[in-house]
Design brief:
Strand order of the largest sheet: 1-2-6-3-7-18
Low-confidence stretches: none
Number of helices: 9
Mean pLDDT: 95
Oligomer: single chain
Number of strands: 20
Distance between the termini: 30 Å
Largest sheet: 6 strands, mixed
Radius of gyration: 23 Å
Shape: elongated
Strand content: 25-35%
Order of helices and strands: HHEEEEEHEHEEEEHEEHEEHEEHEEEEH
Structural class: alpha+beta
């Protein structure tokens, strides 16, 4: 099978990861990937935790241990208008369309193609494929990391095939979450109800929350939060919610403004929506430089047991949640909002020196396969953050494409094929290092 055949097979397996709606990846991907790598001489170990499965394939023995990692789970694609079917591969104009083509099934296919015929004469190659990266990686990458650490088999080098644009990514922020809850409290006030609607405006077709740039992009919930600050109150909130790290296409609120007549106001929802704006203007000290700064985006709203709930995705170069928790506390306390909050997530961030061996070898490998690679930072978090804090030389990489977490996701075919050659070359040189 060539790399496009592998990708087509993977895209046809439904691996949508959407726990908010009780949807988890179909584990049949394990049978396909497991049979494929066994045929190449790898031994296979399966890790399962809850609804998630991860596969660890090993070939060779001894040092150095070179690990390559990618994930098969994808974000939902409901309520998105696709020009091509999201659940199968469509080739058009040098691009391969389908959910996961860029993030991250294209990279899984590239790794599987790269290890075909890979000669391991010295050292160990470890291939890790997980299925929960889109929900934080705690049941996949962290589980595998802990198992390898307990065996004294942590890799010296990690090639995390979960990037894009052919960048040798050496920095990525940690991912956290902030959950706000406020009790429903409806009352009648003097005023008039006005329906307000806002749409997302981001560069390209991506809706990935980590790619949101305050001041350059428009987030519909943040826009409505600004309006709510000057309104008498809020009575309703609805939108095209997808998941915690996907910016909704549109959001609509019913605001109550001054005027004749009577209208209902929900004081809990009002406080909740008003608190969003200052929380998204997050100002915290970061441990490591990030060109993208600290960014907080409110992407999911639900009503549960008489409470309004808003979930915010937070990206920052901090070791733990303490500075985020303190900032949210200040906003809630000093703003006088009757809102409860919870901060979660973490796992560290990715940072590898640009002078590290894996980076030098990656630059050479890129030149060898005819690529034009640069060293830098990508916006989204990745599973490499579980390994980087333990001293593993780690980097993220991936082919060029577009539509990340949005409609009409695609990967450029020539870039995908080049990525497969890049991975093989880099593994070969690291094994001989």
């Amino acid at each position: 099978m060539d790399v496009l055949d592998l990708l087509d097979t993977l895209i046809r397996i439904n691996t949508v990861n959407d726990p908010l709606n009780g949807v988890y990846p179909d584990k049949s991907w394990v049978d396909f990937v497991g049979a494929y790598v066994r045929s190449l001489g790898f031994s296979v170990e399966l890790f399962e935790e809850g609804p998630y499965a991860s596969l660890l394939a090993v070939k060779g023995s001894g040092e150095p241990i070179v690990m390559a990692m990618a994930h098969v789970d994808v974000v939902p694609y409901r309520d998105q208008k696709w020009a091509y079917p999201p659940d199968r591969l469509t080739l058009m104009g040098g691009k391969a369309y389908g959910r996961g083509a860029l993030d991250d099934k294209g990279n899984v296919a590239a790794l599987l193609h790269a290890v075909r015929g890979l000669h391991v004469g010295r050292g160990t190659v470890v291939l890790a494929i997980t299925s929960d990266e889109e929900t934080g990686g705690r049941h996949g990458a962290r589980l595998i990391r802990d198992a390898l650490a307990s065996r004294g088999q942590l890799p010296r080098y990690l090639i995390n095939a979960d990037g894009n644009s052919e960048m040798i990514c050496i920095r990525r922020r940690a991912a956290y979450s902030v959950t706000l809850r406020a009790r429903e409290d409806v009352r009648d006030v003097r005023g008039r109800a006005v329906k307000a609607r806002a749409r997302a405006l981001m560069a390209g077709s991506t809706r990935h929350a980590a790619y949101f740039v305050p001041g350059a992009h428009v987030h519909p919930v943040i826009a409505l939060s600004a309006r709510a600050a000057s309104a008498l109150g809020v009575s309703q909130l609805r939108g095209a919610w997808v998941k915690a790290n996907v910016v909704p296409e549109w959001v609509e609120a019913v605001l109550v403004e001054g005027g004749k007549g009577r209208a209902e106001v929900d004081s809990g929802l009002t406080d909740l929506l008003r608190a969003v704006l200052p929380i998204t203007r997050m100002s915290i000290g970061q441990h490591m430089y990030s060109q993208f700064g600290a960014v907080s985006t409110p992407n999911v709203y639900t009503r549960v047991d008489g409470r309004h709930v808003v979930m915010l995705d937070v990206r920052a170069m901090v070791r733990d949640a303490a500075p985020i928790r303190e900032y949210v506390r200040l906003v809630i306390d000093e703003g006088g909002y009757d809102v409860d909050y919870e901060v979660g997530g973490g796992g560290g961030y990715l940072y590898t020196s640009p002078h590290a061996r894996i980076v030098r070898e990656a630059v050479d490998a890129c030149a060898h396969v005819g690529g034009v690679c640069r060293i830098g930072e990508l916006p989204g978090a990745s599973d490499s953050r579980y390994f980087s804090p333990l001293g593993v030389e780690a980097m993220d990489f991936g082919p060029r494409g577009g539509g990340l977490h949005g409609p009409n996701e695609y990967v450029e075919v020539d870039s995908l094929e080049r990525a497969a050659r890049f991975y093989r070359r880099l593994m070969e040189t690291l094994l001989s290092a």
